[in-house]
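quick one
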Amino acid sequence: MKKQNIYILAIESSCDDTSAAVMCNNKKLSNVVATQKIHEEFGGVVPELASRAHQQNIVPVIHQALAMANIDKKLVSAIAFTRGPGLMGSLLVGTSFAKSLALGLNVPLIEVNHMQAHILAHFISEDNYDPPAFPFLALTISGGHTQIVLVRGYFDMEILGETLDDAVGEAFDKSAKILGLPYPGGPLVDKYAQLGNPKAFKFPKPKVQGLDFSFSGLKTSILYFIQRETKENPDFIKENIEDVCASIQYTITGILMDKLKKAVKQTGIKQVAIGGGVSANSGIRKALQEAETTMGWKTYIPKFEYCTDNAAMIGIVGYLKYLEGNFTNQSITAKARYVIQ
Ligand code: KG4
Ligand code: ZN
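structure w/ zinc ion:
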């Protein structure tokens, strides 16, 4: 007998992207993301503005996701939504909407941990992409997160290390801000870095125990360095932007790779998967590719669409939980701090 298709409508609203996706089993039919531009002028995400923008975006984004998937909402098997972690005001919009929609359509509701979704995004079926086999290590790097996770199964994960202060994306963005670059500056640092000498300037690496990270000290040392140099030469940034960016990127990449090497040594697992918006960084990608040849690692980088915040990654978790009959009910609430287990 032919197995019936499962259609998951997924909603993501944890930070500043409003997203909806439709999955047919483990395949993406649509994945619509409305990125909120409003935060650019403030140099970072303003929580109050983010929740307001989610309220405006959520209906059109869901409509568009259903239209692009070319399915009627009556076909939807379940609604999956991001319960946390994230900004409370943002999460509330997606959570409340998902609950109402599940009630209205009379379908099950599935709650999803955003961090788990970043990792399980590797299991969205794509041509020419084989997901990692268990167990593997996952490095999640974005504007809000920096974690190394040991993944034993879809729902058997252990956080081995995480940042004690800033996320790696923040380290890029705050460095960019010091250099007078607009928000979010990460991609611009990457762009300039590709033209510069990574060893032109040396920044100290933090001394953090175990597999945890810290990026706040790096930001301070970059700030003092720039203040010192521009005092001597007001045109220092303009004249050295490429070398400064290359040196910052080289330092951040080094910090991440040092911890990954330590995690591989500690666990004996050489399969390393990355996710999160910072996985777009050319220096980090190159370092991972090199590790395949120099250290015999097998590395996994999903399509960029699945690296940044998106609802398809919520949808794949929804599908996997649907198969297990792992549903939640209408009493569920959003959870701003939500640790994966
Ligand atoms: O995953 P994401 O889209 O949103 C969350 O923060 O959850 O990640 C955005 C972060 C920003 O900090 C942005 O500057 C950074 O990813 N980013 C990059 C690059 N592309 C995006 N950082 C360094 N190099 C890049 N190429
Ligand atoms: Zn994220």
